[in-house]
Fold each of these.
Amino acid sequence: MIAAVVPAAGSGRRMAAGKNKVLLPLAGRTVIELTVDRLLASRLFGRVVVVAGAAEVAEMSRLLAGFSTQAEVAVVAGGAERQWSVACGLAAIGREWEYIAVHDAARPLVSRQALAAVVADARQYGAAVLAAPVRDTIKQDDGTGFVAATLERCSLWAVQTPQVFRADWLREAHRRAGEDGVVVTDDAALVERLGHKVRITVNPDDNLKLTTPVDWQLAEILAREELTGGTR
Ligand code: C5P
């Protein structure tokens, strides 16, 4: 089994409610409960550290208390940037764990097969990220509102979470980013900076990230389909 850091300290600025989106209900439970449940149901994770905003640690601890019979589940306070929240989570994971996954709390519907695949790839290659081929053609601008280049779609990937790493690589990557003042939204980018190769694990399943109110409506449909169909 491996450990997981679940960043959940976002403010939900892009949601209408203005509340942390992972504390909102989806198909009858909060998103953070669904996400932790999904990780634990895979039986791949022995320790899950959820990173909450300082003001939400107590509420999330209460919501997640019931899961502690299945694995070690802890809630710790995060930081103002996602990267700093992940670093806070890493600090709460003991040295006995060889691999660590980072999984956004805002992706509650990741499939069991995708979880197994990305963990297996990380064990083989040291680092792996779930990803899907991009559907849109991506263009780069020239900074003045005109197209500078059209990128080759067949080599582009929309990267998701979980991202799974050798624990020593991930810790070193965060330490070095802190020293160098680098702040990004993707842990793999920090590991890439160290020169390690990161495997792309193709995810054929939906792995919706809850960002806008429309995502929410779609997630509600998918989650209810799963509840009735049990497809994942
Ligand atoms: O804002 P965004 O959806 O990109 O955030 C991705 C994940 O990172 C979310 O689950 C959010 O709760 C988490 N996050 C965090 N600490 C921050 C900002 C975001 O844990 N300071």
Note: The CA atoms of residues 173 and 191 lie 5 Å apart.
Amino acid sequence: MAVGNTGWNALAAQQLRITQSGTTIKDLFDSDPQRVTQMTHRCASILVDLSKHLIDSDALDALLSIAHEQKLGDAIRAMFDGEPINNTENRPALHVALRGHVPPKMPEVADTVSATLQKIGSFVEQVHSGAWKGFTQQAITTIVNIGIGGSDLGPAMASAALRSFHHPNIRCLFVSNVDPAHIRSVLHGLEADKTLFVIASKTFTTLETLSNARLARTWYLSEGGTEQDIHRHFVAVSSNVPAAQAFGINSDNIFPMWDWVGGRYSLWSAIGLSIALATSMSVFEQLLDGAADADAHFLATPLQNNVPVLMGLLAVWYRNFWHCDSHVVLPYAQDLHLLPAFLQQLEMESLGKTVDRLGNSLPFQTGPVIWGSAGTNGQHSFHQLLHQGSSMIPADFIAVATLQGTEDQQQHQHLLANCLAQSRALMCGKTYEEAFEENIKKGLSSEQASRLAHHRQVPGNRPSSTLLLPTLNPHALGTLIALYEHKVYVQSVIWNINAFDQWGVEIGKQLSGPMFDALGGDTLATQSLDGSSQNLIKHIQNTARDLQNQ
Ligand code: F6P
């Protein structure tokens, strides 16, 4: 895809046509009674309403044309066939194999996935039944997952989302930040003899995770645990078995990972161990099944009805032709409150690139900033900017149609009403005339009503998708996450970038070593730094010295 391609030009012309005609999303509903039916799709149990987008059928056709121009169909098949689509690391991206879509040419992958699932299942069974005992012969009641990025966000998000499916005797906590405040606050009040640490790190080299794991081990020993019993309290998930063993983890307690699963795509692998421990193996399997259904949909559905394809193409439409810099994710479900953070990594690590697959500079914008939080809270903080701010920010509303149990139905109805009202308000806005009329009805003078109406008018015409889950169950959650994974892949294919590497993350890791040494007083390391860093370090050292001398 490049600026100047036929498809790109056609899309630019479509954007210009819509802008110049002044067509609004509301107009598109008025002119096409079939719009809702045609633009509402299903993926497994999830209903996806794409009708509130600033796009008509001609522009959508132009978007589908660039998908064909970029050979999206072939690219989808290449992923499922296990082609090395992660070209900078010469690897396939086989998260779909973890959900049962194993490339026929790789039967060994099927074997290793199924053996790992069995190992997870049998471990979960031992912990849940109480057969797995801590150093005082008591059952485990607390799991602490230590990981970061994909080794934290996926399991933490899914575990929070599946709160209603939690095992009654197990609580699962997550530690990620290298700030000792995080692990100290989690460890506070825990009973070491009933605590199991899952050290989740694909590489087993990540500084944050290893520092926290070491601190956890020291804490465990200080709380009465012994070296001899460490295997009862520390297990690992990693592709780096020697490093996990060197840390002191018994090889039987190392759950495998593979280089063909990216960190942000790894919750379906043994990185999901904490999800299964927090809930049950059956819940974890339903999660995988839900994702497998989204995979089947992505692989087999014609592009014009393919939900992740349409979501990805719409993201390209807004990023490149309407110049939207950010995209907001608004789950109207408190249990999905970690979804925006999870999607931040998924989308921004995958699409935050400025070169194409061959390393050529791209002449257009790629991944937008992804942000958001659970509704309705955002309505009382940042939604003001969504409604009246100067930028158009496309939104994803994610809602759960029904609440199980009867007690809280009315409150749930308030939640849904707010969700639907927000997407409608973004689309419809409020004209100056409507605001003026409201002011008059409130008893304001005509002069006051006019002055205030300028502030109360809301532009509207702001696009959104609504994704409706039947209930927040593991199957629907699996489908939802996989939909987003595939949406990201679609964007990467249109932009011709590699969605599966993250070289930009390396630079911070490389620079933190010398910075650590400089903070510790190493003169040579300090001299190699820029003026700002040197000054900040000096200030930190002086502050520490002053505090000591007090
Ligand atoms: O630093 C970024 C990253 O590499 C992510 O891609 C990954 O999910 C995270 O670090 C954790 O990596 P690991 O599982 O190897 O500790």
Note: Residues 148-151, 201-203, 206, 209, 263-264, 349, 502, 505 surround 6-O-phosphono-beta-D-fructofuranose (CB under 6 Å).
